[in-house]
Amino acid sequence: MKNQQYNKLASGAKSTLLTLVLVTFLSLGKSNAQAPGIVGIDHVGINVPDIDEAVNYFHDMFGFTPVTQLGPFSMPAEWKKTFYIHENADQVELKMLRAGDGSNIELFAYKPNSGSKEQPYRDDISATHFALYTSDLKATKTYLESKGVKFLSDIQSGGGDTEGETWVYFETPWGATIELNSYPHGKGYEKHNPAVKLWTASSNIELSPATYSKAELKKIADLQIQIWDNTDEQSRSAQLTELYTDDIVFFDRSGCDQRA
């Protein structure tokens, strides 16, 4: 009887999952943006005084991985004029880092660099920063402090639309300011059921093409199928913990339920 119920459940789950994956894949690439073809943010760029130092910093502290490199190469005078680069800057080098499950980070280093060595004020036009999401802000802060990272304040808490969010800023060795933030249970604005929700790197976000790549969705689908093809209860239970939360409940067509 138990095997019959399991087979019913496995068959139904496979059918539902494959339908979900097909619909999801067909939806990939669609965007509500007005500009044709725009999907989202690909990377953020940061100027650094020493590109190797910056790569090592992001790798050692956060596990970010350098993937592509361009240069160093010389820049023509017209290029420097167009993009407001100092005339005596001769070469530029670029490296792109994979930054976890968020946007990539592109590092720029100019040589010689006669640009300002002072960090911009937060209210300067075009002054920017970016935030790294963490599921445990206190643990991340404690770890980074043990590595000698300088924090600019204590952890702050939001209210109103940002209720449930905490954040703190730290400084890189070359003086740039980066934010850490966390909202594992969502933000206050979500209580109003908005038609559009902000993208988030949180693991609690809804599975959707907006937050998972084709490869990631296929990996989830493949694991799901492996689970329901597995007739060994012990190893199947171990696989279930990789994909589902502890309170998941499965239902089959006969009305029986099975808790993971």
Describe this structure in words.
The N terminus is likely disordered. This protein folds into three domains: 75 residues, no CATH class; 77 residues, 2,3-Dihydroxybiphenyl 1,2-Dioxygenase, domain 1 (Roll), CATH 3.10.180.10; 88 residues, 2,3-Dihydroxybiphenyl 1,2-Dioxygenase, domain 1 (Roll), CATH 3.10.180.10. With 260 residues, it is an alpha+beta fold. The chain starts with a helix and ends with a strand. The strands form three sheets. Strands 5, 6, 7, 8 and 9 form a five-stranded mixed β-sheet that branches. Strands 1-4-3-2 form a four-stranded mixed β-sheet, covered by helices on one side.
Task: Please outline the helices and strands.
Layout: H1 2-27, E1 43-47, H2 51-62, E2 65-74, H3 77-82, E3 91-98, E4 104-111, E5 131-133, H4 137-146, E6 150-151, E7 156-157, E8 166-171, E9 177-182, H5 214-229, H6 233-243, E10 249-251, E11 257-259
Parallel strand pairs: 1-4, 5-9
Antiparallel strand pairs: 2-3, 3-4, 6-8, 7-8, 8-9, 10-11
CATH T-level fold name of the largest domain: 2,3-Dihydroxybiphenyl 1,2-Dioxygenase, domain 1
Unreliable residue runs? 1-31
Mean pLDDT: 81
CATH architecture of the largest domain: Roll
Helix fraction bin: 25-40%
What is the beta-strand fraction?
A: 15-25%
By CATH reckoning, the class of the largest domain would read: Alpha Beta
Choose one word for the global shape: globular
The total of beta strands comes to 11
SS summary, helix count: 6
Structural class: alpha+beta
- Using the CA coordinates, give the radius of gyration: 24 Å
Largest sheet: 5 strands, mixed
End-to-end separation: 18 Å
CATH superfamily of the largest domain: 2,3-Dihydroxybiphenyl 1,2-Dioxygenase, domain 1
Order of helices and strands: HEHEHEEEHEEEEHHEE
The figure for the number of domains is 3
